[in-house]
Amino acid sequence: MPGRRAAVYNGEAGAVEGAGALRGEELAGTGAGVEPLATEAQADRLARQLLMARTNLRGYLMLMLRYAKARGESAADLARFLGEQAAPTWGRLRNCTAIDFARALAQLVEAGGDEVVAVRDEGGIARLELRPPSSDDQLLAAFGIERDEWHALYYGQFERIATWLGLRCLHEREGDLHRFYFARIARITGPHRRPLPV
Questions:
Q1: 2-183 fold
Q2: Which of 4, 95, 130, 134 has its Cβ near the most Cβ atoms within 10 Å?
Q3: What is the dihedral of CA 82, 60, 108, 102, to 10 degrees?
């Protein structure tokens, strides 16, 4: 297992190191007084660094899960702990709408590697749909973590944060698609029940 773990991280690190230092002319600008935002080489390097950062983030959370399990704790226990610890850092959104929270959460998870499939307001109920990156498969295999346990940890934190902000949360899963509903005031309208009934 240590060998496989090294392959995940060192393989990415080697790719960045192999790219070498950027050449002087790539950093010198256009010569017309206008500096480019980034050269192709810089953009490629940044993309690899972002992938490494995302892989490390998710990998270390998986290792935390292994640590917790070795001590008799479950993925739900760790999700509860991490969610409750992280919730106060969302203080500026204490009085936010459900869609404000969904949009902020979408930015956070996208930075962490998830694909944001949809985020929208549905009559006061915010809907957020996410899909985890395929790179999770290699990490899960390397660390011997079950997918359901990983998702319980990673996505289970969101409900704790939402609750701290005074929002209700419902999490559904359809294959590899995770669907979240957030609402500040749960309600039922018309003859059909809403996703978050009272």
A1: Muramoyl-pentapeptide Carboxypeptidase; domain 2 (3.30.1380)
A2: 130
A3: -50
Domain coordinates in residue numbering, the chain: 2-183
- DSSP assignment of 87-132: GGGGGGGTT--HHHHHHHHHHHHHHTT-EEEEEEEETTEEEEEEE-
Torsion angle defined by CA atoms of residues 90, 91, 95 and 96, in that order, rounded to the nearest 10 degrees:
-30
Quick check: 190 pLDDT over 70? no
Look up residue 61 and give its amino acid.
L
pLDDT digits (tens, 9 = 90+) for 96-108: 999 999 999 999 9
Whether the per-residue pLDDT at 4 is higher than 50: the answer is: no
* Stated pTM of the model: 0.69
| Residue pair 63/78 in contact by the 8 Å Cβ criterion | no
